[in-house]
Design goal:
The protein is an alpha+beta fold. The chain has a single domain, classed as FdhE-like domain (FdhE-like fold). The chain has helices at 2-19, 123-131, and strands at residues 40-45, 52-56, 62-65, 80-83, 89-93, 100-105. It has a six-stranded mixed sheet, with helices on one face. β5 (89-93) and β6 form a beta hairpin. The radius of gyration is 15 Å and the shape is globular. The two termini are 17 Å apart.
Length: 135
């Protein structure tokens, strides 16, 4: 199934490039991608005001999402977060669905950011989450 996702990625990415500019994303409040329905694999806190932006794992689309809450299950329960040592990354874990989302804080980063490769950022965070039984 993973191979199918990789095979479809270029088509989904192109579709998102065409669809997203035509949508009024200020009206989109869901935790899944408005272009393809994919789930986020990364969040960024904007440098200026700290707003949260989600990035799709399938089409590389992005959209704004509320600062608090789980984009996977919609729970507004307070999430536990684990910061990286350099405080650039945070691992947010939902107490209800036990899923996690890696987040990069642009207010702490002093280098260019590439959302396509940021999810690979401290791999130890993913390993730690998986060892805690998170998905």
């Amino acid at each position: 199934m993973l191979a199918v996702g990789f095979a479809l990625a270029p088509y989904l990415q192109r579709a998102a490039q065409v669809i997203l500019p035509r949508l009024d994303l200020s009206l989109w409040v869901k935790g899944y991608c408005p272009a393809c329905g994919g789930q986020p694999n990364l969040a960024l806190f904007e440098q200026s005001r700290g707003a949260r932006q989600l990035f799709c794992s399938r089409c590389d689309g992005s959209w704004n999402y509320q600062r608090v809450g789980c984009p996977f299950c919609g729970s507004e329960a307070k999430q536990t977060y684990y910061p990286s040592q350099d405080r650039v990354y945070r691992l947010y874990v939902c107490p209800d669905c036990h899923r996690y989302l890696k987040t990069a804080d642009l207010r702490e980063i002093q280098r260019p950011v590439y959302p396509l490769v940021e999810p690979a950022g401290p791999g130890g965070m993913d390993l730690a989450a998986q060892q805690m039984g998170r998905t």
